[in-house]
Amino acid sequence: MPVDPKILERVEWLRKEIHYHNYRYYVLDSPVISDAEYDALMRELRDLEARYPELITPDSPTQRVGAPPAEGFAEVEHRQPMLSLANAFNEEEFLAWYQRVRRLLEGETFAMTCELKVDGLAVSLTYENGVLTRGATRGDGYRGEDVTNNLKTVKSIPLRLLKPAAAFMEVRGEVYMSKDAFDRLNQERAREGQPLFANPRNAAAGSVRQLDSSITARRRLDIWVYGIGAIEGGEHPPTQWETLQWLRELGFRTNPNTRRVATPQEAIDYYREWREKHHDLPYETDGVVVKVDPFALWSRLGVVGREPRWAVAYKWPATQATTRLLSIGINVGRTGRLNPYAVLEPVQVGGVTVSKATLHNEDYIKSRDIRIGDWVIVERAGEVIPQVVAPIPARRTGQEQEFRMPTTCPVCGARVVRPEGEAFAFCTNASCPAQFLERLIHFAKAMEIDGLGEQWCRAFVEAGLVRDVADLYRLTKEDLLKLERMGDKLAGNILGSIQKSKTRPLSHLLVALGIYHVGTVTAQQIAAKFRSMERLLSASVEDLLAIQGIGPETAESVVAFFQEAQNQRLIAKLREAGVRMEEGEPVPTPAGLPLVGKVFCFTGTLASMTRSQAEARVKALGGIPTDTVTRKTTYLVVGTDPGETKLTQARKFGTALLTEEEFLALIGEKKGG
Ligand code: IVH
Q1: Strand pairing of 320-332 and 375-379?
Q2: Cα of 65 from ligand 1 centre, angstroms
Q3: pTM higher than 0.70, yes or no?
C-alpha cells in the first residue's frame, strides 16, 4: 500500500530539520533549539520510520548507528588518489619549498592558505547527489577500506548536504579524537584492565577501524574537513580558501584557525604563532599545512611521487621518536623513593640524543604494559624530562620481559615498601648511601648544627668520614683536618655545633631522621604523646592514630620506619653517642606557631570570617581544627546560633568556651573590645 504523501512529506521535513540542527550543533557549535526540542523531532522521525520501514533511507539521521557488525572491510578505490605531503622541519626548508614553487611559476606571486595539520587519520567521504554514500580510509593512497558505517556515527559528518553541490564529490578531512575524549577513553580502559592507546591519533584510527560500528559510536570522534578529491557534475570555487568557506556552507566542519596569507613571512608568522599556541587547543596537531591558494596553479605545479608541489607540511619540532627499551634501571631518590627509568638505545628526539627516560612508577609501567626489550615511543616535550609514552606491541618478538619492582633496595639491599595508597615504592633504610647525602644535609639542618651546610656534608661523605648520621658524633679534629680548606678554628666550631646538637629534644630528632610524612608539626605531636624514643619504638599504628591530626599514611610510615632493623641500629648508635632521646618539659612551642597542640571546634556563625577561614587560621598557627567536640578538644568557639549537641558535649567534657572576640584575640587578630 503506498504511503500517504502527507506522511512522506512530514518524514522529509523532519530529516531536513534534523540535519540542519545537527549542523548547528556539531559543526557551527551554535544550536538554535533546545535538546528537548531536538529529541522530540528525532522521536517523531523514529516513530514514523518504525511504522513505515519502507521510508527508511541510508541518509536518514536515524541511521547513524545500528548497522550490524562487519566481518571485515571491503576495499575501495579512491577516484582521485589521497596524496601525502612533503615535510619542512625548519624555516630554511619551508623557504626552500616556497622558492622552488616560485621558480616553477616563473616568479609569479600567489596567495597561500595556512591550515593546522591535525593529527588524526585521513578519510575520504563520497557524496552522490548530496547524500553520503561512502566513507573510506586513506589506505595506501589509492585504495582504502570502506568504513562507511563507522564514519556515519561521527555526528559532525553530514549524511546529507545542506544545499546541492555536485552529482559526485569526494570530500577529504581528518577524523580525530579530542585530548579530552582520549584521556577519558584511556581512564576507562585502565579501569577495565584493557591496553591503553598511546595517543589520540592511534585511538582515532583504532576507533574508525572497528568492525562493530556501535563501538565507534561510543568513541566521540570528530572531523575537520580540509579539501576535495574527485568532483563530477558540479563545480567548486577556484581557490583553497574559498573552497573551505564553500564546504562550510555545505554543512562540513572546517577548522576556524585558518588564514590566507600573501607572503612566506606571513606563513612563518602563522607557524610561529601556532607553534606556541597549539598546546592549548583541545585536539592534537603536528604542524601546519601551507597550500598554494589558486587551484589553477596546482595543475601547473604537479605532483612528485605522492607529494604535490603545491603544499607543504611545516612540522612542529619533533617530540616523539621510537627506539628499543634495553633495560629498566632504578634510581633511589633522597626520600628513598624508587624511581624506575628506561635505558634506551640512543635516539634523536627534536635534535637531542636521548638514552634515558622516566617510567614514573610501577603502575605507569603496568598500565601501559611496557616490557623490557620492547620498541617504545619516547617523548621529549619542551623542558620536560623525556618519558616513555607507550610500547609498540606489534614489534614484539616474544623475548620481551615484564618488569617487576624490586623488593629490596638496589643500592643498599634494605626492604622496599609501597605504602597503602602511594604510587611509589620506598627504600626503608635511613642510611642507604643513595639517599645519604641528602639525609645528612637534612639531619644537620633539623638538628640545628651550625656551620655544617651542604658543602661540608658533601666533603664528609666523599672523604668517607661518615656513613650514617650517627658517625657525625664520632668525628675528631684530626678527621676534619684531613679535608681541604678546613682550618683548626673551623674544625673546632663545627665539632662544637655537633656536640651541642646532642641536646635537642626528641621532636627535632624525629624530623632529622627524615621519616616520610613526618614534618615539624607531626613530629611535635608524636613527641608530645610518647615523650621518649623508648616508648615510640614500641608504638603501634593504632597508638599513632590516636593522635588528633595523624592519619593512617603517617602512622604506617612511622611504624615501618622503626621496624626496619637498620633504622633500629642507627637509633641505638645515636643513643650510644649521647644524643637525647626525650622530649623534655615543657613542650617547646616553635616561634610563630602559638596553637600547636590545641584542638579547636566551631559552632554557630562567626561574624568576621567563614568557618573554613577560621579553620585555616587555626591550622596555619599549628592548631588542629575538628568537627566534633571530644575529650581532646581544647576550645569550642561559639558563634551566633550555636548547635545544641556541641555545647552539651563541651559541658560534659569541661571544654573551654571562647567567644568570637576571645578567639580573635588568641589568634592575634583582636578587634577593639
Ligand atoms: S592536505 C595532498 N590539510 O596530513 C595532501 N592534510 O601528511 C592532502 N592532514 O594525509 C592533505 N591536516 O591526513 C591536508 N589541513 C590539512 C591537514 C592534512 C591533517 C593530514 C592528512 C594527510 C596528511 C599528510
Answers
A1: antiparallel
A2: 27
A3: no
